[in-house]
Design goal:
Helicase, Ruva Protein, domain 3, 50% helix, globular, 7 helices, Rossmann fold, 9% strand, four-stranded parallel sheet, single chain, 2 domains
Length: 214
């Protein structure tokens, strides 16, 4: 029997993806047809598989990321209700600055802003020094994982915040683009990561005030 890198037979991967398609097709019933859901699930699995170093949770991450992508695609197409502004944070690997900024915005916005993050070249795992620095503010980062930058997430965003990813982000009219000069926490000491966290936190508080007026 042919097997892949995570040790699962190919037919088991197929079964898992089929179940994900079933669940998402039901969730997005009346918005997207099954063929569209199937396309997004398959593409999402391939995107995550290409960057994965550990594949044991790949199906779970595929389900979560495909759901997010379909939500954003529906927003772009005008097929779903848009109640709050959406902010996208982009850095290179999506394991440091962009994850930190997304978590802080989630924390301060109280659901009044939709939050996304992505990497121009996503790879690796979120360092424990990042999760610990956020944990000191009682902000969990338990479900975060690096995600590739996809077209629909940029199109769905009202504000795109880049942090050291160069020209990787496509530019679309009608969006607000911010380029934050934030130090890279990769390899930094805990005290330096706290300084970066506080710098990002200050910027996030200002952004929340602008977006929701609080």
């Amino acid at each position: 029997m042919t097997r892949i890198a995570d040790g699962l037979p190919l037919h088991e991967i197929g079964d898992q993806l089929h179940r994900i398609v079933d669940e998402l097709a039901e969730k997005f019933h009346g918005v997207f047809g099954r063929d569209t859901v199937q396309r997004f699930v398959t593409e999402t699995y391939d995107l995550l598989d290409a960057q994965a170093t550990v594949r044991v949770h790949l199906a779970t991450l595929t389900a979560r990321f495909a759901k997010q992508r379909l939500t954003d695609f529906g927003r772009v197409q005008g097929l779903t209700t848009v109640d709050v502004p959406q902010v996208l944070f982009i850095c290179v690997h999506n394991v440091g600055r962009s994850q930190m900024a997304a978590a802080l915005l989630e924390h301060h916005a109280f659901g009044k802003v939709a939050v996304r993050s992505a990497g121009s070249r996503p790879q690796g795992d979120i360092p424990s020094v990042i999760t610990e620095a956020l944990g000191e503010l009682r902000i969990p980062l338990t479900e975060a994982f690096p995600k590739p930058l996809t077209d629909e997430v940029v199109r769905a965003a009202d504000v795109v915040v880049t942090m050291g990813c160069g020209d990787a982000c496509p530019v679309y009219p009608g969006k607000r683009y911010l380029d934050w000069d934030v130090a890279d926490p990769a390899g930094a000491s805990p005290s330096e990561v706290r300084r970066i966290r506080d710098d990002v936190d200050r910027r996030i508080r200002e952004l929340v005030s602008e977006l929701v007026g609080d």
